[in-house]
Design goal:
Structural class: alpha+beta
Strand order of the largest sheet: 4-3-5
Helix content: 40-55%
Strand content: 5-15%
Number of helices: 7
């Protein structure tokens, strides 16, 4: 909250009751969300806030790096709380849209070591693996083989035959 207050002060803005409530709601959610999710959550808590106010507040939270955009949804922007040193990524199923988070000490260690080796101050990462989850493979093996695997194998074979 203090970071937001300082950022708003630099911009000549104040920490309004609505902005405070929106940030509190985001912190309570503890998950990825989009503006519609946030709007629903704010209103289900009995707080009347316009969607325009939520959009503007989300933009301010992005600018002061309290939030980050995940880029995981094909529909609309998804957001999550940004934490310095909290390095994680996501696996995204292109068939059902399921998202699983990747995290752990090995990933954080890789980021730290790579950053040090390059002399780079890493503020965050955007790691996204795109594929098909095990549930979809088990539930739709025939259609996935036809729609995904066969075209990929034909592409791989054509690359192999052309010498690339």
């Amino acid at each position: 909250m203090e970071r937001l207050r300082q950022y708003l002060k630099l911009r000549g803005l104040s920490l309004t009751k609505e902005r405070r409530r929106i940030l509190e709601t985001i912190c309570e959610m503890e998950r990825r969300f989009n503006v519609d999710d946030l709007f629903f959550q704010v209103h289900s808590a009995g707080r009347k806030t316009s969607k325009a106010t939520i959009y503007r507040t989300v933009q301010l939270l992005l600018e002061c790096r309290i939030l980050k955009e995940t880029g995981l949804s094909n529909r609309q922007a998804d957001y999550e709380l940004a934490s310095v040193g909290d390095f994680h990524g996501h696996w995204v199923c292109q068939h059902c849209g399921r998202i699983q988070q990747i995290s752990g000490e090995k990933l954080a260690e890789f980021v730290r070591e790579s950053s040090e080796a390059l002399g780079f101050l890493t503020l965050g990462i955007q790691l996204k693996f795109v594929g098909i989850c095990s549930n979809c493979v088990q539930e739709n093996p025939t259609s996935l083989r036809k729609d995904v695997c066969v075209p990929f194998l034909k592409y791989a074979q054509s690359r192999e035959n052309s010498g690339n």
